[in-house]
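pasting for ref
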Amino acid sequence: MVELTSILDIVRKSVNGSSCRLERSRIGQFLTSAGIARFMASLFERQREHVRILDAGAGAGALFAACVEAMVSGNHRPLSIHVVAYENDQKILPYLKETMEWCKSTCHKAGIPFQGEIRVEDFIEAAIVRAEEGMFAVHRERFTHVILNPPYKKISGESATRQLLDEAGFEVSNLYAAFVWLSAKLLEPRGELVAITPRSFCNGPYFRRFRIDLLNMMGLHRIHVFGSRKKAFGDDDVLQENVIYHMVRGERKPERLIVSSSEGADFDKSRSRSVPYDHVISPGDRDAFIHLVLNDSDDRLMEKMEACATSLVILGVDVSTGRVVDFRAREHLRPLPEEGTAPLIYPCHFVSGFVSWPAESGKKPNAIAVSPQTKDLLLPAGYYVLTKRFSTKEEPRRVVAAIYDPNRVEAALVGFENHLNYFHAKGKGLSANLARGLALYLNSSLFDQYFRLFSGHTQVNATDLRKMRYPSHDQLLRLGAHVKHQVPDQATVDEILEKECGING
């Protein structure tokens, strides 16, 4: 038997060569390689006599072809296979039709009845109707298997897709989440879903509702993490960190699940481990964040963090995103301080763990006019701890913190630009020593490692920072006593944390 997925790799390269990479990126379309397709197909666990496969956003058909290939060549062949593939890209349809014919021919040779449907229509629109449940549902359609590489694209607030989803009660911010959610709804009880999507749904506020609802509906059995997106998706301009996951409809959460990882698509060299479910999704976490604990060092890191059992709520501290969006406040910005202005702080003002203002580079404005139009953008002078919101994956630290010391800046008010987060106490400054201690902790190796384990993206959101563990109030004060004119170097910071809190990175 000719291996379908080997043929499809040729097809994939042909499609990639004939279509503009920029165009595929614009619509969020990334075709699945044979290696990834085979791996995904191998994750299905249950044997079925009559198989119904859904591939929403099928592309050239690599995913359902890999499923058919695995089922036909396995020891427990199904009695029938029915594939439903959604795809409305006219350029890809000829390749998809060829793939469906290959599946038909392969099943025929194996003596397995095969039925294949290509639906040239919008999946979301069609699935909303077909996902209806209850005794009066007219278009009820259910599948035993879903295999999915959905489009990766934000849903515009003004789009018809957004309106459709809102009317149906689906609260999602990205097309991939809508595809996964609707596909899961189309599964029969104990039906299985395997999907490859960005990792972004694992945490953060934008996917909270999606995460909670999906985990209530599905049992998560396995999740695979790619260490290098470049190695895994070298043919495409995939900017997100991607994961593959296997879920089962209607099952209670398992006691343990499999977490695996590989640098790229060489799954023979992947690392796999069984971990307690509660280590991945903490019980009682109202946001249902998914922690990806990949190895023993991650386990040890989780154990170390047990020493930091305090939340920001207990500390009486909150963290918010900087209020000043510079392009919206352009008319109020000033290159240098002048009468009637307040300091405007950017990441460029971070120097040795403190805010150094004004900056002499001239690349960013240093001040914002104080007026009725800007009063809600400003805060009273005080001690604040700031973190950068954005970093690159290649930077040595994800979390970079600095102290805004009101004694170093003569001003009654201050503005923090939107590329910063700021820690505060009900909109006012913190005590001096608490601010110093918090900044030292945020700049520790331990916190940075834990944050990277906790968050799969390079953005440092205020919501993520609220979810983190912190030392007690007294411990933070003791840490703060070690910070004088600048935050110490990395080695010293980590030594201080070990001395005062009994933990290190």
